Amino acid sequence: MNSLERVLTTLGHKEPDRVPLFLLANMHGAKELGLSLRDYYSSAENVIEGEMRVLNRFGSDCAYPFYYASLEIEAWGGDTIFSADGPPLCGAPVIRSAEDIDSLRPPEVESSPGLRRVLQTIAGLKERLSGQVPIIAVAISPFSLPVMQMGFDRYLELIHEQPDRFLKLMRANEEFTVAWANAQLAAGATAICYFDPLSSSTNIPRELYLGTGQQVAKRTLARIKGPTATHMASGRCLPILGDIADTGTAVVGVSILEDLAQLKATAAGRVSLLGNLNGIEMRRWTAADAELAVKRAIAAAGQGGGFILSDNHGEIPYQVPDETLLAIREAVDHWGRYPLEWVKDWTDPGPG
Amino acid sequence: MTALVTPFRESLESLDRLRAEAIFQEALLRLSPIAAVEQVVVPALEQMGKAWEDGSVALSQVYMGGRFCEELVERVLPPSDPDRKHQPRSAIVLLNDYHALGKRIVYSVMRASGFELFDYGRMDVDELVERAIADRIRVLLISVLMLPSALRVREVCDKLKARDAGIMVAVGGAPFLFDATLWREVGADAMGCSASDAVAIVEAWMKEMA
Q1: Which among A112, A300, B33, B129 is placed 20 to 30 Å from A33, CA to CA?
Q2: What is the mean pLDDT of each run of 10 residues along chain A (352 residues)?
Q3: In this complex, which of A204, A208, A317 lies closest to B147 when CB atoms are compared?
């Protein structure tokens, strides 16, 4: 099976030849090219080349032309702060007061140089990958985007204290997200990873999600012209897993903070799971640690398909050594082959 | 007063400000302001912190509840009130990071628990070390969200130690929750899993320093 066939089989809740692995090591492309993150992300050619090297070296089952979340904020008139060893972050809020929302207009995708670079990257990857490897593009959810647009604290206050303005903001953001996601699909992306960490149960209670994030996701995903995966970016989602499935998404990115076997049982064939290796701990894993983490995840969620092994945040930290990524790759090759006969006799050795 | 703690916590979690206010006023009928804070507000926030750790309460509830408690306590214990806890001299900072919500929550919960502390906003390593020493800080609370920022705590701790500053450092934020050994690796003296942990840590250090 090629990567695309492997992924499509597992998303059909059937067992492919082995557990698919999404190694979302997008910043490692810069290391491969010996470039700073700022220089790396300044050109589509760099990212195409870096992503291809990462793919060839670590054998991920997807290409991941994600730059950094703040790129979307650049389209709204914001700026980005680069650092030497971590994901670029967004600068000052573009919505400085709640009143700014009243005149907010969504930006055109084509008018943003950063977004255009991503579209060029996707097109370049599509040309090189010949349809054998899925290209997973990213769109931040309209519901989560305001954390960067206006700051987390002021956005929480807006949701609770100014419901009308909140809805105005969602209307503008939904237009942008739909256009951005569809532009990436048109450029050659196979699917959209809809990052929606604010909807996570870590961040808001279920009742609030049902009246806000879920409604936004239902409206938005219905207008995205391709398959979607919803990612909680390390946040919990067990109490709302069924509610997320109701939004029409095919996959949910889940956290190491929750029991993967319980998540799989709760998903019950309605959605596939993506996760849940601990990217923060990964920085100091030995090869044996990596192997054990891979075995744990596969034992918990691999049976019957409906599972893609990945980190739990949707972005592997820059500090994770290449050797660790290779150890993960080797462990999946060894322990991820279907049928997973070893799982029924396996006992988790526990911590230490 | 323990009977008031659970209803007070529930009113905070459901963002029912009127009910929370009424319960707090009921406590004030029988207790001094500082006693009402210590016997009702602090335990309720502590319970919310634990509930956030186990996933049964969300960050939005902790933030909105903490902010309301801060306002409530501000009214009965203004910063100049002699019952406010000004010792040990403490400060909170967002280190080399731009995600301020965690710091804001801890600051609210500390103030809602009767503590006065400096809010340094966002600082880089060298600026923080100089400021903390100049202010004769004894307890430094460092909040981060990103892994590179968490790793920079090592530089802060090394520089404070090299200057023999005698400053205790407590850290908090997502990287420390996802890697339980990280706080020791970067040289911190303690790690808080929730905002109310910060209160418990400072109270314990306050006793040690007395």
Answers
A1: A112
A2: 98 98 98 98 98 97 98 97 94 95 97 98 97 97 97 96 97 98 98 98 97 98 98 97 98 97 96 97 97 98 98 97 98 98 94 69
A3: A317
Q: Which residues of A touch B179 (CB under 8 A)?
A: 278, 280-281, 283-284
Stated pTM of the model: 0.95
Tell me, what CATH number does B21's domain have?
A: 1.10.1240.10
- CATH number of the domain residue B199 falls in: 3.40.50.280
- The answer, for B55 touching chain A at a CB cutoff of 8 Å, is yes
CA–CA gap between residue B89 and residue B70 (Å, rounded):
19
Nearest CA-CA distance, residue B17 and chain A, Å: 12
The answer to whether A53 and A64 have CB atoms below 8 angstroms apart is no
| Residue the block writes with tokens 């009214």 | B75
Q: For B59, which residue in chain A has the nearest alpha carbon?
A: A203
Range of the domain at B9: 2-76
Q: Cα–Cα distance between A335 and B105 in angstroms, integer?
A: 43
Alpha-carbon distance of B13 to A87, in angstroms, equals: 33
Same domain as B172, residue B96: yes
Please check whether residue B89 is in contact with residue B139, taking contact to mean a CB–CB distance below 8 angstroms: yes
ipTM of the complex: 0.94
Q: Of the ranges A305-309, B19-23, B111-115, which one carries the lowest mean pLDDT score?
A: B111-115
What percent of chain B shows pLDDT beyond 90? 85
Q: HSE on the CB side for A350, CA within 13 Å?
A: 0
What is d(CA A113, CA A95) in angstroms, rounded to the nearest whole number?
21
Stated as kind and residue range, the H or E segment containing A117 is helix A113-129
Q: Return d(Cα A27, Cα A17) in angstroms, integer.
A: 29
Query: pLDDT (tens digit, 9 = 90+) per residue, A211-230?
Result: 999 999 999 999 999 999 99
- Asked which of B21, B44, B76 is the last residue of a domain, the reply is B76
**Residue-wise DSSP of B91-156:** EEEEES----HHHHHHHHHHHHTTB--EEEEEE-HHHHHHHHHHTT-SEEEEE--SHHHHHHHHHH
**How many CA atoms lie less than 13 Å away from A95 in the CB half-sphere?**
28
Q: What is the CATH number of the domain that holds A173?
A: 3.20.20.210
